[in-house]
Write a structure and sequence with these properties.
The structure is a single chain. The radius of gyration is 31 Å and the shape is globular. Strand 13, helix 14 and strand 14 form a beta-alpha-beta unit. It is built from 24 helices and 21 strands. 40% of the residues lie in helices and 17% in strands. By secondary structure, it is α/β, with parallel strands linked by helices. It starts with a helix and ends in a 6-residue tail after the last helix. The chain has a 7-stranded parallel beta sheet with strand order 11-12-10-13-14-9-15, sandwiched between helices. Strands 16-21-20-17-19-18 form a 6-stranded parallel beta sheet, sandwiched between helices. It has a 5-stranded mixed β-barrel with strand order 2-3-4-6-5. The C terminus is likely disordered. The chain binds adenosine-5'-diphosphate (ADP) and magnesium ion. Magnesium ion (MG) binds next to helix 11.
Length: 727
Amino acid sequence: MDARHEASLRKLLQKLACRASLNRRMELTLESAVTQVKGLGPTRAAVLAERGITTIGHLLSYLPFRYEDRIHFTRIAELVPGQPATVEARVESSSLVRFAGRRHAMFHLRVKDSTGQLHLKFFHSAYLNGKFKAGQALVLHGKVTVDPNRPMRMEMINPEYELLDATGDASDSTEVGRIVPVYEAIGEISSRMLRRYIFFAIQNFRGEIIDPLAADILQRYGFPSRRDAIFSVHFPESDADVAALNEFRSPAQARMIFEEFFLYQLGIALRRQSEQRRAGIPMRVREEKVREAVKKILPFKPTAAQKRVLAEIAADLERATPMSRLLEGDVGSGKTIVALEAAAIAIENGYQTALMAPTEILAVQHYLSARRVFAPARYSVELLVSGMKPSEKAEALERVASGAAQFVTGTHALIEEAVQFAKLGLVIIDEQHRFGVLQRKRLAEKGAAPHTLVMTATPIPRTLALTLYGDLDLSVIDEMPPGRTPVETQWSEEKSLTGVWEFVRREIASGRQAYIIYPVVEESKQELKAATAEYERLAKNVFPRLRVGLLHGRMRSEEKDEIMEEFRAGKIQILVATTVVEVGVDVRNATVMVIEHADRFGLAQLHQLRGRIGRGAHKSHCILVAPQKVTEEARARLETLVATADGFKIAEEDLKLRGPGEFFGTRQHGDVAFQIAHPLRDHKLLDLARGEAFALVENAARAAELEKLKQFLGSEWQNKFRLASVG
Ligand code: ADP
Ligand code: MG
């Protein structure tokens, strides 16, 4: 047998084997295990399982975040450095290059088409050696670069490739000749592997995909069925608009986004409906005695916004259904006093109020200001934090249980089992974004349907808040108390620190105080300056004549209290701290904040930190210390902060930079877990979906439709949306 004959026979055999495997196709359904997918073994299945992906249904719900056009081929002579391109070529030669002393090898491949030659380099890819035969046809996709040592030589580093069979047919390819989906890698499982698995799953899918959207909704918005949408979100038709896909505007994507919002809003609508059927505690608000009490405790003239918001809260407290209200107001807008006024109403009605704060420092601060504010009314104020002495704590618990304590503030310690209230009528959560939904709920469960007020300094645009936290009523304080001077913010480099310290000295000489913030408590491998070490250095070498204090989360509670108290009293002039001061801390005389490694903090976090200054009549300054050369995102954060102090603008920017998942603290708290939907980008679909969901729930005539939907969604729906609301 001559060599040519042998080769063609082998090819024939290969084809036959291929046919046979086609005939042995899997019959996959949504419930099939992922291990049914060709090439997906137990090790990788375990990696996927960690992400909750165990079935084909889960796998198909893992959606691409980007698409690449690999339909339009470019000839080698027409390649442009810096641009991605798809090339059809033949193998010329290959070689494996090992570098002395290095473990990994680089695989070189030289290919050509009728117009030129292209060099490919694959790092860590010894296994490719011998895989490519001269003359073999293949399609490549990657970014074109120029070899720095040989400027005339075009190359691609680690391109995607697909070997073509003798006929040059790539129709079954997942890599090229189509619009290719790009997935976020899961551990060691690359986008490319996921693409193959999902392609296999779709090719072999024989199951049913029920559509939760009613036919008339599909028709109204021109949406494809769920099945069609899922398939084409993964592998779009070759004539699809790639730009639209990358902006998540394709009909299939719009449908998936709408569906997510719709189901989410359905959860909210149902929850709201059942909430409104519960019996709450109607309180007397208009009575002279109550009005007098509320007026008596006011330490200053409230702003118009504070008045309006209190009126909204008071109207809720009067009602026979429990209040669930979100109070939104930028850092320093004066939410606390509103909360205390609401508490006064509850207390005058004979009920206890609980105020939960995310940190001990903040709880203590609330305790102190409640004592001050409530002094004229003689309400008894209690503090519950975990750092208390057991004997003290036992006594406090006793007063809470007997009802002697009328206003109770504290940290998570409030939701411990041992805490029992005699008559809890109002629950207030400060800085709600710091709590999980369950923690918030647990506090409310310590009373019989108490009114709930959650407060946040993360101002989200009103429409967005309404649609996302749609089962909460919303009050917004959109006005700052008078007498504030805006904070001036600048971005400085490390080399100007001497000047910065000089500035701090001057401010302190004129009677002010300063914060200096570090990202970590102790030195670590990250090479970040740490609060403890910098505190020593600053106190000894930089500010030897000033009183410098240190505050961080790892200190004991009493120590923290002491330091905070001394700072409040002006005994400590410079407070070196970590982000423990991020929320709520209110010391008006502090006018300078220096934040080192400012590029390492999130935007919202920086805004919160900066909110600690600019609280009094004196001009305040925030100095962000970071190198000029930072990542693009860090630059965007710092520039936003320098440009504006408007919390709403900052929140919107933050939402854009981080995406809604992180923004709303999804991962930690399970609040909003969208796969593909993005509330800001897709707000129009959000509005439509909300309208449809509420219309369905409110229309008694459509009860059967709703019931069917609930059944279809079953436990999955429960899991996904049980935690969908705040409070
Ligand atoms: P936040 O909304 O960030 O919780 P706070 O409630 O801590 O803000 O209020 C910030 C500061 O403004 C506090 O020192 C508070 O006493 C003061 N403040 C609040 N409302 C007024 C007002 N109407 N007039 C003057 N000062 C006010
Ligand atoms: Mg506050």
